[in-house]
Amino acid sequence: MLRSVFRCLRTNPVAGQRSMSQSSLAGKVAIVTASTDGIGLAAAQALGKRGAHVVVSSRRQANVDKAVALLQSQNIQVTGTTCNVGDGKDREKLVQMTLEKCGGVDILVSNAAVNPFFGNIMDSTEDVWDKILSVNVKSAFLMTKLVAPHMAKRGGGNVVFVSSVAGYQPMQALGPYSVSKTALLGLTRALAPELAQSNIRVNCVAPGVIKTRFSSALWQNEDIMDEFKKQLSIKRIGEPEEIGGVIAFLCSEEASYITGETITVTGGMSCRL
Question: Top-level CATH class of 29-210+239-265?
Fold first, then answer.
């Protein structure tokens, strides 16, 4: 029996390469925005553990320093800098620094998001909408526009947007935020065919409720979580690492025929057909 299995692996090496190699992203450079904690940090860890040089950023230098120290302790190649992705000069500085220190860019994980409003959507103001759409949607596109020419020079690349299950099923009291996450689903589909011409794949991840500081108002409320878990097949909230692994997969050769797609990582929440 074992001999036949080994013969199969020799004649069909792909069968023995189903799991992602720890060096599957060796030589790649990955920019991950808002990457000093939560999903962003988990994405940086997942990409770095597979061999990528990760560029992490946050608005606060102290957070950057802490994330860089953690990743270095895990033997991950990392460069860090401050960046407010809502600021055009900061976006340009982030990309330029990456080019100067790492020689290019192959992967963009657009994770930065804000939510300054909680309440009835009809009570939201113009300032709230401007802030949310500027950071959550516009900056995601403009970062992609900045890095795409540099990816093309290296023969292609990968862009991954971090959306949310709220993009499919708007969450009560999070109306404007939910709309911004729906926009990322459309941005993924709009960019994919254009950038495919440069061998750049564009995909999206839509997490459910994940145990991060950003979503703590949800998972720390027992009443909300008890109600939420009724919608789940897996009766628990997700961990950031479970999103980071999906992001790393989408940036790997194992996903080389996937573009324009959104993967929902929700514990089985029924958010679409």
Answer: alpha beta
CA distance 142 to 116: 21
Neighbours of 80 (CB within 10 A): 24
- Is pTM, for the whole model, over 0.85? yes
Active centre residues (catalytic): 177
Structure tokens at 37: 């904690």
Q: Is 134 exposed, middle or buried (0-12, 13-18, 19+ CB in 10 A)?
A: middle
The sheet that has 107-110: what strands, in order across it?
A: 78-82, 53-58, 29-32, 107-110, 157-162, 200-207, 262-265
**C-alpha atoms less than 13 angstroms from C-alpha of 21 in its C-beta half-sphere:** 11
Look up residue 194 and give its amino acid.
E
Would you say residue 20 has pLDDT above 80? no
Angstrom distance (rounded) from CA 241 to CA 124: 33
Other C-beta atoms lying within 10 Å of the C-beta of residue 82: 16
Q: Where are the domains of the chain?
A: 29-210+239-265
pLDDT digits (tens, 9 = 90+) for 179-230: 999 999 999 999 999 999 999 999 999 999 898 877 677 767 777 777 778 8
- Residue type present at position 261: E
Neighbours of 37 (CB within 10 A): 17
Between CA 70 and CA 20 the distance in angstroms is 23
Decide if 169 contacts 232 (C-beta within 8 A).
no
Helix (H, G, I), strand (E, B) or coil at 51: coil
18, pLDDT greater than 90: no
Q: Are strands 157-162 and 200-207 parallel, antiparallel or unpaired?
A: parallel
258 Rama sector, left if φ>0, alpha if ψ -120 to 50, beta otherwise = beta
CA 45 to chain centre: 12
Strand 29-32 with 107-110, pairing: parallel
